[in-house]
Amino acid sequence: MWFRNIQFYRFEEPFKLTGEQLHEQLSKRQSRPCGQMEMASNGWSAPLGKNGTMLVHETAGNLMFCLRREDKVLPASLVRELVDAQIFEIEQAGRTPGRKEKGEIRDQVLAELLPRAFVRASHTFACILPASGWLVINASSARKADEVIEALNKTLTTLPVVMPSTEQSPEAAMTGWLMRAGSLPEDFTFGEECELHDAASSAVVRCRNVDVMSDEVRAHVTEGLTATKLALNWRERISFVLSEDLSVKRMKFDTAIVDEAGDQGGDDEVARFDADFAMMAAEFSEFIPQLLTAVDGA
C-alpha cells in the first residue's frame, strides 16, 4: 500500500494509543452498508481487506487504518427526467406547480429510487506515525482528507492535529526556486512540470515535460506569474508534485525502494503489506520534515 497523494497534519501532543487501543475506538464507528433511504454512509474498515479483521494495522509502532464510504449512484439526468415528467402531467391537467410542490415531487422521486440505486464504495487510507508526530492521509483533495479528520473527531475523544505552518507560503517558495537558479534546497531536484498563475488576469500556464529552468519558464516568473504547482524529486527516492496548499500529489517511490520492500515481504500478501507500510512510513518520517524545512528556507 503505497500512498500516491498525501495531505499531512502535525500532532500537537504525542499520540499514545496502541494499535489495539485505536482499533477498539474505531470499532465504535465500523463501516456498514448504506441504509435504504441513505445517500451515503462511512465507517472504518480493515486496511488489510479480506486478509484481516483488525481496523488498525500496526507496523514498527506506526498505525494504518482505512475509512470506507458508500455512495448511492443516482444519475442527476434520471432524477430530472422523472421529476419533469410528473410536472408535465400536472401542467397538462391545467395547473402549474409551485416551487414547494416541485421540491416535494423531487423528494418523492428520490424516495422511490434510493432503495434500488447502485452503491459505489471507496476507501481512503491514512496512517499515524507516533514517533515523528504525523497523521498522513492518502487523499488527492482536501475534501477527502477532511472527511477522514471529521470521522476521527467523531470516533476519538480528542484529535489534536493541525495543518503544518511555514514561515512563507509554498507558492512563494516555489516561485523563488524558479526565479533564482541554484536556489533549490539540498536533497531536492526539479522535475519536468510546473503550473504558473497570473493573479491579475487569473490566467494559468501549465508546463509539462519541460526543463523548468528554461528561459521560457523563467520569463513567465520574471513577468510576475507565481508557481502554484511544481514537480520535484527528493533524494532520487520520491518524485512528486508540490501544490500551493502544501499537499503532495502524484507521489512515486523509486523502484529500488519498492523492490526492497517486495524482497522483504515476499509472496505473502500480509507480509508484503507490512513491508510496504514499514518502508513508506520510514520515508515519510524523513521526507515531510525536510519538505517543510525546504519551504521555510527558500
From TrEMBL:
GO cellular component annotations of the record: bacterial nucleoid
Q: Name one GO biological process term.
A: DNA recombination
Main localization is: cytoplasm
Compartments (UniProt record):
Cytoplasm, Nucleoid
UniProt-listed InterPro entries:
RdgC
Q: Which UniProt keywords apply?
A: Cytoplasm, DNA recombination
Which Gene Ontology terms cover its molecular function? double-stranded DNA binding
Q: Which family does it belong to?
A: Belongs to the RdgC family.
Q: What is this protein called?
A: Recombination-associated protein RdgC
Organism in which the protein naturally occurs = Mariprofundus ferrooxydans PV-1
